[in-house]
Design brief:
Blueprint lengths: L4 E2 L2 H4 L5 E2 L9 E2 L6 E7 L10 E9 L3 H12 L6 E3 L8 E9 L3 H5 L6 E9 L8 E13 L5 H14 L1 E3 L14 H9 L3 H9 L8 H13 L2 H7 L5 H12 L4 H5 L4 H25 L12 E6 L2 E2 L4 E2 L5 H9 L3 E7 L9 H14 L19 E4 L1 E3 L3 E7 L7 E10 L4 H9 L8
Parallel strand pairs: 4-7
Antiparallel strand pairs: 1-2, 3-9, 4-9, 5-7, 5-8, 6-7, 9-18, 10-16, 11-12, 11-13, 11-14, 14-15, 17-18
Helix pairs in contact: 5-6, 5-11, 7-8, 8-9, 11-13
Length: about 450
């Protein structure tokens, strides 16, 4: 089952080095239409009150990335982006429904809001906001199109049988965590952790990468060469609004890169550090697969976390010779998961072979856990935690049918639920084995 195939270069760049299954993929393309990628949060509703400081609402949108949506919502409502919060970030090329909170906004004003392909539903008041992570998970309905007509249902079964056997798949952070076109969020995070805010800022606003539009590539290239922030501010297109916010600050003070970065939304800045933690986690999980260690069963020295009501708890139990049999029985029932390290200033390391893997990756990256204490921007500091190596998949339904968007091709529809923080694309990569990130 393990490590028969190397992953493509774009995945190696984000720490994903292996496919878990050795069956050839079905290929195809995801998100031909935004409606082909439907994701609905499994909400954790804040308590309802008659009159409260926060207006809670379900927001459905098509083709909107969450941070851009918040920016435009704030602009239309004429409020600070800090007054809008949400539980989880959603991809742009999708149809998503998520819970949001709006501070000191009337129901009438929110309902009257008009943005293309955005629908606000079921508003009510609460005394507490929606916060990052306030969700049980996500429900997905996805269509993979342009699948070759030679692909059979039996081939899909062969790929998915290992996944269905262990009720899960390797819990890699997917390409969307790092940027599907410009996979640089983990690099920005690494430089922040290293205290190099100039390099962090320049990686975000410069650092041209093939795959962007020709114009954007040229403008980033010019900025790298000239460091002319004023020229870049005036020539960058409006769609690069976050880059322009940094550039505007650098025009005022060309040497204050720390303040310039803080022009970005707080949750986006935090995402950079989280993306670097994600990259390190991907590398550790990749190495575990390379060593043919199981991810659905424990080995000596592993650290497990219990699962209650489908949610992984932040309670960690080391695996020893005296409890390993009992632990593995719990793992088989999906009542616990084996975990990997999310590096922070107060790490909980594994022992045994997993502990050796965790320590080796940190040594190769030349990272000290205390680097995750960031005094320049304290809210970016992270104490760290652990994450399940297996993304639990309690159920999976799929069908194959002719592709109405491409005559002579097939389409595959999948329906499943995942816990929060798990990536649908990390399941789909095993099925599709795409060589181009644009196919996800």
């Amino acid at each position: 089952m393990y490590c028969r195939m190397n992953s493509p270069a774009f995945e190696q760049h984000i720490g994903i080095e292996w496919f878990w299954t050795d069956e050839p993929g079905i290929g195809g393309k995801l998100r031909t239409y935004p409606e082909d990628f439907r994701v609905t949060e499994r909400f954790l509703y804040p308590p309802r009150v008659e009159q409260g400081r926060f207006l809670i609402a379900e927001v459905s949108c098509k083709n909107w990335e969450t941070n851009t949506l918040v920016h435009d919502l704030a602009d239309r409502l004429r409020i600070s982006q800090r007054r809008i919060s949400f539980a989880g970030t959603k991809d742009k090329r999708s149809y998503s429904t998520q819970l949001m909170s709006f501070e000191n906004i009337s129901e009438e004003k929110l309902v009257a809001l008009s943005l293309p392909d955005v629908n606000v539903q079921n508003p009510y008041y609460s005394s507490v906001p929606v916060r990052i992570g306030d969700l049980q998970g996500n429900r997905f309905e996805l269509i993979i199109r342009h699948v070759d007509s030679s692909v059979t249902e039996n081939q899909l079964n062969n790929i998915l049988t290992p996944v269905e056997t262990v009720h899960g798949f390797p819990n890699f952070y997917g390409i969307q965590r790092f940027g599907a076109v410009r996979s640089i969020t983990h690099l920005v995070g690494k430089y922040i952790v290293q205290g190099d805010f100039e390099r962090a800022a320049m990686t975000y606003i410069g650092h041209p990468i093939p795959g962007e539009s020709e114009e954007t590539y040229r403008l980033r290239e010019a900025l790298e060469r000239t460091r002319d922030y004023a020229d870049a501010f005036h020539t960058y297109p409006a769609s690069l609004n976050f880059e322009k916010a940094i550039l505007n600050k650098l025009i005022q003070n060309p040497n204050d890169f720390t303040s310039a970065l803080q022009e970005l939304p707080k949750n986006l800045l935090m995402m950079f550090v989280h993306a670097y933690q994600s990259y390190l986690f991907n590398r550790m999980l990749s190495e575990r697969l390379r060593q043919n260690l199981p991810i659905h069963q424990a080995t000596l020295g592993d650290v497990i976390a219990p699962v209650r009501h489908g949610i992984i708890q932040e309670e960690y139990l080391p695996v020893s010779a005296s409890n390993i049999d009992k632990v593995n029985r719990q793992l088989m029932k999906q009542k616990a998961v084996v975990t990997g390290l999310l590096v922070g200033s107060e790490p909980t390391y594994a022992n045994g072979r997993m502990g050796e893997i965790e320590q080796a990756v940190l040594e190769q990256e030349k990272i000290n856990p205390k680097d995750f204490i960031i005094p320049e921007v304290p809210y970016l500091s992270s104490s760290g935690s652990r994450r399940g190596l297996l993304a639990l998949l309690p159920s999976l339904a799929w069908t194959m049918q002719p592709d109405d968007a491409a005559p002579g091709k097939k389409a595959v529809t999948l329906r499943f639920e995942l816990q929060k923080g798990c990536y649908a694309t990390s399941l789909l990569r095993e099925l599709m084995k795409a060589q181009d990130p644009k196919n996800y």
